[in-house]
Design brief:
Keywords: Methyltransferase, Transferase
Strand order of the largest sheet: 3-2-1-4-5-11-8
Number of domains: 1
Radius of gyration: 18 Å
Pfam families: Methyltransf_12
CATH architecture: 3-Layer(aba) Sandwich
CATH superfamily: Vaccinia Virus protein VP39
CATH class: Alpha Beta
Helix content: 25-40%
Protein name: Methyltransferase family protein
GO biological process, one term: methylation
Number of helices: 9
CATH topology: Rossmann fold
Shape: globular
Structural class: alpha/beta
GO molecular function: methyltransferase activity
Distance between the termini: 36 Å
Largest sheet: 7 strands, mixed
């Protein structure tokens, strides 16, 4: 089997310019309005608190919309991604927005090797990121290694229950189809499109991904020397995760139409590094 990183990198390299040109990401708004923030960071803002003067690293930053948004909130930001095409778009965005961000190419597991240990006050990870990683405990060790003692992790992510649901059904049933817990072998998907509207015929359509249970994520962080300081589950998600059964809310979030309180859509988890190795 091909290395999952090579397979996924090819997919994200092809997605990057398509996403950058899409109305969904609306990169022009960053140049047009110096106060503009991504919808995701706008949602996160009440829990993020004051970022002024913090040195932050955004893991799996993609084309940089959230990274630039965090810089606009006062953090000195670095963005890390394994896709050179994504980073090229992120650098263009940073320049046009007028918010300097240092973008670094690496996969997550290699981050301490290129960024150093204990260099950051904030590790930020956004929606749809950790599912591309096979080992959540290794991820947690990377997070702890990057943070200064007292430094904070902020992650808002798709809930593992949401990732377990089957999409594309002809009815409105919510069916648990995929693993909730971490699994050794990847889930392999072959999808012709992407999550934004785009007039593009994709060539690299295969992806490898994994789910991670909420308890596994929390336990991994505790084992890595982190203290959990917050865990909030939300009934909305920033994209139409289940086409046909969701409705769009004001502000750009999406929610299951029928009894949305049945299903955790996303969660925000915060943790502080308390153990020094």
């Amino acid at each position: 089997m091909s290395d999952y990183r090579d397979v996924n990198r090819a997919n994200w390299d092809e997605r990057a310019p398509v996403h950058a040109a899409s109305a969904g990401y609306d990169l022009a708004a960053f140049a047009r309005d110096p106060a503009h923030l991504s919808d995701t960071v706008t949602f996160d803002r009440p829990l993020l608190g004051d970022l002024g003067g913090l040195r932050g690293i955004h893991l799996q930053c993609h084309i940089g919309t959230d990274t630039v948004s965090l810089a606009r909130l006062g953090a000195s930001m670095t963005g890390l991604d394994f896709s050179p095409a994504s980073l090229a778009e992120a650098r263009k965005l940073s320049e046009s927005a007028g918010n300097p961000v240092d973008f670094v190419e690496s996969d997550v597991y290699g981050a301490p090797g290129v960024l150093g240990n204990g260099a950051f006050d904030l590790v930020y990870t956004g929606i749809g990121a950790i599912g591309w990683l096979p080992d959540i405990r290794r991820w947690a060790r990377v997070v702890a290694t990057l943070l200064k003692p007292g430094g904070r992790l902020f992650i808002r992510e798709g809930h593992p229950v949401l990732w377990s649901l089957q999409d594309g059904r002809d009815d409105d049933l919510l069916v648990l189809e995929y693993p909730y817990f971490e699994h050794e072998e990847p889930l392999i998907f072959n999808e012709e499109g992407t999550y934004v509207e785009a007039d593009h015929t994709f060539v690299h359509t295969t992806t490898h991904s994994w789910n991670h249970g909420l308890g596994e994520i929390v336990t991994a962080l505790l084992e890595a020397g982190m203290t959990i300081t917050g865990l909030v589950e939300h009934d909305s998600v920033p994209w139409e995760a289940l086409p046909g059964v969701m409705t769009r809310l004001p502000g750009g979030e999406w929610q299951v139409k029928d009894r949305p309180r049945r299903v955790p859509h996303t969660y925000t988890l915060q943790a502080v590094r308390t153990t020094v190795y």
